[in-house]
Structure to design on (409 residues):
């Protein structure tokens, strides 16, 4: 079957056309509670009709089982399946997945958590969905993703190694002299099974009105975990085409399948436009303790560093160690001199034996007192300051050239 296409037809029959052991990831979101619905495109020139209603839970689960059987056949031994479901049928689906893929190949029950605004009703507001993650074998592909440390994590928790004492209590590791041992190189916190990814709001650019449409950011995370560039991703219930849009944006091959001709047409139109909404919530973080400005976070990201909160002398650490030791980073504050910034960095680094310390200079500070000021801190100019210097030099060069030519203004 040709890749990078969306096919119309029965998903079980279409899956049979795919060669065995060919696919790296199968993701699907089989709708159960969805009623008949319609939507129009942006210029109101086209109306799409959909009907995802099943007659019974038994009919629905029979289809899911048939799809899972074909999914297992087409998956590589290193492949995985992610099945997205809501509270209506998740308990039933877990039983079916155990039956087809085996309990030993269950990897995670992922909770997609999001905020929803709804009128009050009797009962708890539904604010999450479940995604089951199974592998075909124990030899499955897995790429560890990292998130930044919580803003309430202190410096010692990040830097120092931990162990269990004789009572099983977690304590900092110490050497024979009683000195705390620094931990190994850290890239951040490994991604957990609870994902806080915003639900598509009504005004999101990528929203097209499809009732079960998922955000591309959610699919991106799934694809990044278990696939690499060039891998093949299949969605047997592709609906509005979010999985295919995600795969295309991440340079993966894809095959989409849907029983609805309108869904296929809609998904193809999305592949042409490739509209993906950014999330301010993900970009800025959700914790009220966040101290870093967007500018500071951008500077740290540009040098591959993770942020540290609640420390006036250290703003972050490089994700890579230098000579086996962490590398602290300080960003010059808006009203700080270079000397004051260095002093704060040195004070925060006291007795840590760092092999390299970095100060990011963010502004020109005029006459410096650095003459005779001993420090092993490496000073780097921010990209913004480097750009200003470059433009200044170019302007000076143009002025000098004009003066040399006799154009004095």
């Amino acid at each position: 079957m040709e890749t990078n296409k969306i096919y119309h037809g029965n998903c079980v029959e279409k899956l049979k056309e795919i060669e065995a052991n060919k696919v790296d990831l199968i993701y699907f979101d089989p709708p159960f509670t969805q009623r008949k619905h319609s939507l129009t495109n942006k210029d109101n020139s086209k109306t799409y009709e959909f009907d995802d209603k099943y007659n019974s839970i038994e009919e629905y689960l029979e289809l899911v089982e048939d799809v899972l059987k074909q999914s297992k056949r087409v998956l590589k031994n290193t492949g995985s399946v992610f099945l997205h479901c809501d509270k209506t049928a998740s308990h039933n689906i877990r039983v079916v997945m155990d039956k087809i893929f085996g309990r030993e190949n269950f990897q995670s029950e992922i909770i997609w958590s999001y905020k929803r605004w709804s009128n009050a009703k009797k009962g708890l507001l539904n604010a999450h969905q479940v995604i089951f993650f199974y592998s075909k074998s124990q030899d499955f592909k897995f790429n560890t993703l990292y998130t930044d440390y919580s803003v309430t994590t202190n410096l010692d928790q990040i830097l120092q190694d931990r162990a269990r004492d004789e009572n099983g209590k977690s304590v900092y590791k110490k050497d024979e002299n009683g000195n705390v041992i620094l931990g190994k190189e850290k890239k951040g916190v490994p991604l957990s099974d609870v994902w806080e990814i915003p639900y598509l709001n009504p005004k999101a650019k990528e929203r097209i009105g499809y009732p079960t449409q998922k955000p591309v950011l959610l699919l991106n995370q799934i694809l990044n975990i278990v696939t690499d560039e060039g891998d093949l991703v299949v969605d047997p219930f592709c609906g509005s085409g979010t999985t295919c849009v995600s795969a295309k944006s991440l340079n993966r091959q894809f095959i989409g399948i849907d029983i609805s001709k309108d869904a296929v047409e809609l998904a193809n139109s999305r592949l042409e436009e490739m509209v993906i909404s950014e999330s301010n919530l993900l970009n800025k973080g959700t914790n009220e303790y966040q101290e870093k400005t967007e500018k500071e976070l951008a500077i740290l990201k540009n040098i591959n560093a993770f942020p540290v909160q609640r420390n006036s002398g250290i703003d972050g650490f490089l994700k890579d160690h230098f000579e086996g030791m962490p590398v602290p980073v300080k960003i010059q504050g808006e009203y700080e001199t270079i000397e004051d910034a260095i002093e704060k960095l040195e004070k925060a680094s006291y007795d840590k034996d760092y092999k390299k310390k970095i100060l990011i200079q963010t502004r020109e500070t005029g006459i410096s007192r650095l003459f005779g000021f001993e420090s092993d801190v490496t000073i780097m100019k921010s990209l913004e300051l480097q750009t200003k210097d470059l433009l200044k030099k170019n302007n000076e060069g143009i002025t000098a050239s004009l003066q040399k030519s006799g154009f004095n203004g």
About this structure: Residues 383-404 form the longest helix (22 residues).
